[in-house]
Amino acid sequence: MLSGGYLSWYDPATRSWWQRTWFGGSQPADNPAASLKIVNGNIRQAFDRLTEEPRAMAMKRSGAKPAAVAYSAKAGKAGAAFANRAADLRKLIKG
């Protein structure tokens, strides 16, 4: 795993999501993703929202181009647009 990244997994034995992050320090850290909020079944977006701030800070520390940092911060907003569109289509299908 590269510094500045994260890895997420589901543990069926404990029925919980976990995440290994490496946003600072010399080693990655494993933590339960207790505050994970999955909307419309999109797990990737849920983890991106959960790690948005520390990922942006890690990108800045690594010297990432400003456009990449800005894109990372805006990604959550684009995801909301897709989720809203999906909800609208579901209503249309039910109707």
Task: State the strand order across the main sheet.
Answer: 1-2-3
Low-confidence stretches: none
For the secondary structure, the number of strands is 3
H and E string: EEEHH
What percent of the residues sit in helical stretches (DSSP H or I)?
A: 40-55%
**Hey, roughly how much beta strand do the residues contain?**
15-25%
Report the C-alpha radius of gyration, rounded: 16 Å
Number of domains as seen in the coordinates: 1
* Silhouette: flat
Number of helices: 2
Structural class: alpha+beta
Quick check: average pLDDT? Answer: 78
Distance between the termini: 46 Å
Largest sheet: 3 strands, antiparallel
What does this protein structure show overall?
This protein has one domain. The chain has helices at 43-62, 66-94; strands at residues 6-11, 16-21, 29-32. The protein is 52% helix and 17% strand. Strands 1-2-3 form a 3-stranded antiparallel beta sheet, with no helix packed on it. It is flat. Helix 1 packs antiparallel against helix 2. The protein has 95 residues and is of the alpha+beta class. It is built from 2 helices and 3 strands, in the order βββαα. Strand 1 (6-11) and strand 2 form a beta hairpin. The longest helix is centred in the last third of the chain and has 29 residues, at 66-94.
Brief overview:
With 95 residues, the chain is α+β, with helices and mostly antiparallel strands.
Question: Mind sketching the topology for me?
Answer:
Blueprint: E1 6-11, E2 16-21, E3 29-32, H1 43-62, H2 66-94
Antiparallel strand pairs: 1-2, 2-3
Note the main attributes of this structure.
95 residues, 52% helix, three-stranded antiparallel sheet, alpha+beta, 17% strand, single chain, flat
